[in-house]
Design a protein that fits this description.
Blueprint: H1 9-17, E1 22-25, E2 28-31, H2 43-47, H3 55-61, H4 64-70, E3 74-77, E4 111-114, E5 118-121, H5 161-179, H6 186-205, H7 213-235, H8 239-261, H9 269-283, H10 288-300, E6 327-329, E7 334-336, H11 340-347, H12 349-358, H13 360-372, H14 375-379, H15 388-411, H16 415-427, H17 430-438, H18 454-460, E8 464-466, H19 472-475, H20 481-486, H21 495-509, E9 515-517, H22 518-548
Parallel strand pairs: 8-9
Antiparallel strand pairs: 1-2, 2-3, 4-5, 6-7
Helix pairs in contact: 5-22, 6-21, 7-8, 8-9, 8-16, 9-15, 10-13
Length: 555
């Protein structure tokens, strides 16, 4: 098999069935088996691209120099014309080996090519060029088609919890089809891809990947001022005031850690990694490696209940009815069981949201240490980044020595002051955690299939927060999440311009650009949580009805 040989979709399918990690970059077929466990962004980021044309995702997340080196993994070329995305195995895709008898295969002449997507047997394409679901897969991983599940008018089924859950999940899909361009219209999605690539070129031409270092000079003045006020008030024994300034310092400086994690400051892996390690691990006690591992998956498969760790918070929170059926997280390799605790907590999640956000930092400490002590951390980055894990352990240990021992234990006089200081300083971070959730928890969580373009998925699942330019420092760039998800490596001080370009892209493609004020955005999130709470009450009613009828036991 030569590097210039044309690999048909059947051949690629056979390679994937054989366990190989195959994806498409521009016209090249790449095999990333040897890079899978050395990828600095984590292996899951690659596994979610298997069988797909990952050109847009790769270009958005990697510098041109890195993309050039990736082409060294080329094993062949895709056929002339476009590539139709296959479902990655990690998402449930089933692949047939090369020697499998294909009754529906009639040769390449019986396949239809679509711009930028791939090949597909003609019996799976309707007259408008849209993909149809094969009869054998009609019920796989989706609700059984019925009148209510198809979005037709009528009351929800209340006799069976599973039927109600399927109906509720389907309503989200129907709502998306009513608002967003059809994800199954391959030609339409490819026109969005072309327009997105034109937008990306415009972003490059305008120099928006270039960091404005003068803006970081202003950031440094703010960080140093907050830390100096923390030390000044601590020395004068104004302990609670000191705690406030320490919390504000943590709040502000983590925005730069976010930039470094995306290599948006210097675009140099080593330098940005060191910046991120110093801020996140040494100054804040959080693992930048854990954050990058989970955050990269979040960016690629945003708001997926099964795959995105950022919305997997059962039993405390559920942002969609998909969680009503216990699901297995591909990120945590853990099953989130829907049990009595989840039913109880989610019913009141609209009330518990802000109190939990006030202490959410403590959970991040636990996740950080679990990451650096895990095998995934030890293999992350391979030989190129072998130094990251030991550096993280040392820096996080230093944080707990300085904060836990020198400050809390030695500098504070009593247990009451110590406890209050820790709580106040961490409660000051609540706006940061609210800001992080704000742009996603109120947005779509539906799976619209693999033909949906990268750009449409990001805009469908992400919302911007409207604010005047003079308030940008408060939000730290996180108010431009839709723009950031379209171009993750853009320095945050350039995102306001990218937002304007994204709105023009929205007008050209018909994909709504969601943007709300901070208060309205919070109302939307609380409204979503309250809606799911109401759905839980209906689910419990279904369970009670079946239990009384003797059909099932309560669970």
């Amino acid at each position: 098999m030569g590097r210039d040989d044309v690999l048909t979709p059947s051949r690629v399918e056979g390679l994937i069935a054989d366990g190989q990690t195959i994806l498409i970059l521009e016209d090249h077929v790449l095999r990333l088996d040897s890079w899978l466990h050395r990828h600095p962004g984590g292996r899951l980021a690659i596994l979610h691209m298997v069988g797909k044309d990952a050109t847009d995702e790769i270009m958005a997340f990697h510098s041109p120099a890195t993309v050039k080196t990736m082409k060294g993994f080329r094993i062949g070329r895709k056929p002339a014309g476009p590539w139709l995305n296959m479902t990655p195995p990690i998402r449930g895709g089933i692949y047939r080996p090369l020697n499998y008898a294909r009754d529906d295969d009639k040769g390449d002449d019986d396949c239809v090519l679509f711009p930028g997507s791939g090949t597909m047997p003609t019996d799976l394409i309707d007259q408008k060029g849209r993909r149809r679901t094969p009869p054998a897969a009609a019920g796989a991983g989706s609700p059984t088609p019925n009148k209510q599940a198809s979005g037709e008018k009528g009351p929800p089924p209340t006799a069976c919890p599973d039927e109600y859950t399927d109906w509720a999940v389907r309503q989200g899909v129907v709502a998306c089809h009513q608002v967003y361009p059809c994800p199954d219209d391959v030609a339409l999605q490819q026109s969005i891809v072309r327009r997105y690539r034109q937008l990306h070129q415009q972003v490059k031409d305008e120099g928006l990947y270039e960091c404005r270092y003068g803006e970081y000079g202003k950031e440094m003045i703010r960080y140093v001022s907050l830390f100096a006020m923390f030390l000044f008030t601590l020395r004068h024994e104004w302990y609670m005031t000191s705690a406030v300034f320490l919390g504000l310092f943590w709040h502000q400086i983590m925005f730069t850690a976010h930039d470094a994690g995306h290599r948006a400051i210097t675009q140099n892996f080593t330098i940005d990694s060191l910046v991120g390690l110093f801020i996140a691990d040494f100054c804040c006690g959080l693992s930048i490696g854990w954050w990058k591992s989970s955050h990269n998956v979040h960016h690629l498969i945003t708001n997926s209940p099964v795959h995105d760790p950022d919305i997997q918070n059962v039993p405390l929170f559920a942002t969609c009815p998909s969680f009503f059926k216990s699901l297995h997280s591909t990120y945590y390799d853990f099953s989130f069981a829907w049990d009595a605790a989840a039913s109880l907590m989610v019913r009141y999640q609209g009330l518990t949201y802000y109190p939990v956000m006030a202490v959410a930092r403590f959970n991040l400490y636990v996740l950080s240490w679990l990451h650096v002590c895990s095998s995934s951390s030890s293999s992350l980055g391979g030989t190129k980044a072998w130094w990251i894990r030991p550096t993280e352990i040392v820096f996080m240990a230093c944080y707990w020595f300085l904060f836990g021992y020198c400050l809390v234990w030695r500098a504070l006089p009593t247990w009451w002051v110590r406890v209050a200081f820790v709580l106040v300083s961490h409660i000051m971070l609540m706006p940061l955690h609210v800001q992080i959730n704000l742009s996603h928890w109120g947005m779509s969580t539906s799976d619209l299939g693999d033909t949906e373009s990268f750009a449409q998925r990001q805009m469908r699942t992400t919302m911007d927060v409207d604010c005047p330019p003079w308030l940008d420092w408060v939000h730290g760039g996180l108010q431009f999440q839709a723009a950031h998800h379209l171009f993750p490596r853009i320095p945050r001080h350039n995102l306001r311009r990218v937002q304007a370009l994204g709105m023009k892209f929205s007008e050209d493609t018909g994909i709504p650009y969601s943007i709300l004020g901070f208060l309205d955005g919070n109302k939307k999130v609380i409204g979503r949580l309250s809606d799911v709470s109401e759905q839980v009450k209906i689910l419990i009613s279904c369970q009670k009805s079946m239990a009384e009828a003797g059909e099932i036991g309560m669970h």
